[in-house]
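Objective 1b: paired records.
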Amino acid sequence: MLELTSKVDFEMGRRDFRFFFEDICGFQLADFHKEWYETSEKNKKICVIASRDHGKSVFFRCYLLWKMAYNPGTEVLFFSHSQHQSIDHMGKMDELIMTTPALKHLKPKRGWAKQLFRMSNKSSIRAMSVGKAVRGAHPDIVVLDDILSSEAQTQLKSISTWFYTALLPVLHHTAQLCIVGTPFSYTDLYSELRKLDGYAVKEYPAIDEPTGEPLWPERWSLEALNQRRSEMTSIAFTREYLCKPIASEASLFPEEMLENAKDDTMALSYYPDPDGEYNYYIGWDPAISPDRSADYTCMMVIAMDENRKKHVVHVHHEKGMDFNSQIDKIIELNARFNPVIIELETNNFAMAFNQVLQEISDLPIKPFNMNRMKKEALIHTLQLHFEQNHLSIPYKEEGSTRRHMNTLLNELSLFTMLDNGRMESLGGHDDMVIALALSVQATKEYRENIVILDSNVWQSRLGVTDV
């Protein structure tokens, strides 16, 4: 017999999943976990694509327990990428049941097998590995937990084939299917399900791209995520934590190429070399938009020596800069580094920067009107610079160097060639890459004389006043 308190808890858990998850099972139900619960309850077939270490397995383990505990006779199939992994999940479920007073009664006195739990209320759960035959099964719920374990296209294709031809046919139309995992490829099963109307597919990266905020700050703060980023390759972090899968060999800037470009003896600097051994060039990718998901403004300063070897010197990377602030900043950088050329991307509104600067100064602005062909040419030139070791990335553990350069390296790693032959960034932002590519482009341009006007002078000439 259950103790009275356990009985009360058990009955409260029946009515309230949050109570079951937090007060009975002892875990924190974050807001995004609540979304998973609501999505699972409203849809027969769901696919949750989520960052590593954000409670995917724990949540669905508890969700299955909740469904089985309060719906006697529920049959569950639980799949992972290997039998060992599935049994490991079963072991953790068994431990949770046996250490939770309100759930102990679910385990019969005779016990159960490692891969098959038959509960006292006739519910059951069987652990299986992906690829196993499921003919003859009639599950009420099927969970696929991290069934992908390799980037190999043959394995990814094999899993997709098994899913469509072996698993789906045994599911009754009333059965519930929950798929959860981290993506491996833009051609994997999760990507295929996005294109099908019968699945509710939701994505939960560790960092929200539009806002830059962490998904679960109580467990993974932005500082902790940046620390983890510094401990992994850019491509691995992007896939495992940002849910953007790309194999290194598919990237135009593969991991080995970028690793070779890192120089951990150099740091970013706000000052030019005191010995005057370099010429400086600036790439400027402007952005003006109130949209939170809009690109950042990026100004990238590179130095080139007499052998045409280049390295990044300084980065200004900021979202939400208004027109005047960008004019002030480029004048400031020009005064400090005395660049040979400032290569400015001048599509749409950005032409106004060139017009204003021509009127108020003799800054060495070189407009670059971007289109797809020119952008691809820029990226290919940048790729060639890295391949030939003509461009170095400062990577000393000093100041903001690694934070800025990790952002750049991440953006670079997400450039790939699509099946249609088009070059594309699979990330949400590419402003640092474009600024770097523009600065490299600037090294080809002709030097002009420079006359500097400070912000008070240019604003007075234009009749601009501070608001």
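Objective 1b, second protein:
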Amino acid sequence: MCHFNELSIEIESKNLRSAKKIFHCPYEECGKKYSRPSLLEQHLRTHSNERPFVCDYTGCSKAFYRKSHLKIHKRCHTNVKPFSCHYDGCDAQFYTQQHLERHIEVHRKPKPYACTWEGCDECFSKHQQLRSHISACHTHLLPYPCTYQDCELRFATKQKLQNHVNRAHEKIISYSCPHESCVGHEGFEKWSQLQNHIREAHVPSCSICGRQFKTAAHLRHHVVLHQTTLEERKTYHCPMEGCKKSFTRSSALKKHISVIHEGNMAFHCDSCGTKFGYKHMLQRHLERGTCKKAHKPYINECGIKHDGIEGVAIHDQKEKELSSNLVSDVAKKIINEVTGHGYKEAREYSCSFPECNYRFKRLYDMHRHLNSHH
């Protein structure tokens, strides 16, 4: 039996090499396409300007497209700079490899402007850099004063003055709404303000079927269903000999291998001890009342004995339904177990495909319906 971690790496690399780019960006005039839904999802963030990875440090509201970018950003809070300059006499350190490479270019450029102060060997590629160096390090002059009323601060360079003005005196619009209907909007200072605006003013909706969603991420997952068939979405194939199963997500494939081929049963019934590989199978076991462990029977108000308290609740519910005279037990059973139609209030999950009126109580059941019918 293969080790699970090694097998996961093998699965990932194998599918990356063989996968076809079948997931197309739904935005007009964008011809991007990808081999996996996750890559398409990552790309779509550049259209919606969605940055789900938010820094959780107190007072910091910066957000990023990718988790790796957030990880790099957090180094500025911990002051971890793993990339160091290798030039002799230079102790500069940086948060990223890109910043280090940019710094190294400074060493490689010619530096014709040398400081003439006694004992100073600094050289610079620009004359303005030399002037700023002399003001800050030798004459200690601060030639750039803040011109705002009641502010007496001065700075050695124009850039430091501008940074001060932006931070202390002027409202900086860092984020603007990407939707065309918001052209001319003044924008937002914080990422969180932009996200609140988008949630309230621009509810994500499918351009194909018109269905609305709570988040852009839910919409992206939905769009993929319109663009491909189920078989096209199943790009993750089980590598175990004799197994022809395939899946739409790598996580589903890993779970399949863990449960079916390695026999890992993480969920068990507290009453009878029966083990299950999937949580929904345990839930179904509990809902159906198939637990065979002997226990004291429960008696309801009608004097009827039941194997468990769940049986009492089911009986009482049936009595209530009969008294309401809405539908017969036979009709209810057909509706509940066969058609999936009706009882809109109790079935919050509806099929998103046009002309399909199926509704479901559980999200899991809706996914099974989509995979088998669409």
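The CA atoms of residues 191 and 346 lie 37 Å apart. The chain has 15 helices and 18 strands.
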